[in-house]
Write a structure and sequence with these properties.
93 residues, mainly alpha, flat
Length: 93
């Protein structure tokens, strides 16, 4: 029971610290942070692919769902990053 209290405390603390950190980041640094988050999601995608190759049905189902959601996160993140970087390019007349 104590482990769940500790895990809940860590979750609430990480949410608070994440919100505080993101609110202090200047807008010019959001693109590099997005790219870093996409790299981490790519690592998650590799782990999800590995776990979906298991022999148990529950692991296959959860791994497949993880592949689906991590793929959406990676593709969407790179699209947003590309759009943000496009805002810094010079406009052709």
């Amino acid at each position: 029971m104590e482990i769940y209290i500790l895990l809940g405390f860590v979750l609430i603390l990480s949410i608070y610290l994440g919100l505080e950190l993101i609110s202090k980041v200047p807008s010019t640094l959001h693109t590099p942070l997005m790219s870093g988050a996409n790299a981490i999601s790519g690592i998650t995608l590799v782990g999800a692919i590995l776990s979906s190759g298991s022999s148990e049905f529950v692991t296959i189902a959860l791994g497949t769902a993880a592949v689906f959601f991590a793929s959406i996160n990676v593709v969407g993140g790179y699209l947003v990053t590309n759009r943000m970087l496009g805002m810094f390019k010079k406009k052709d007349k």
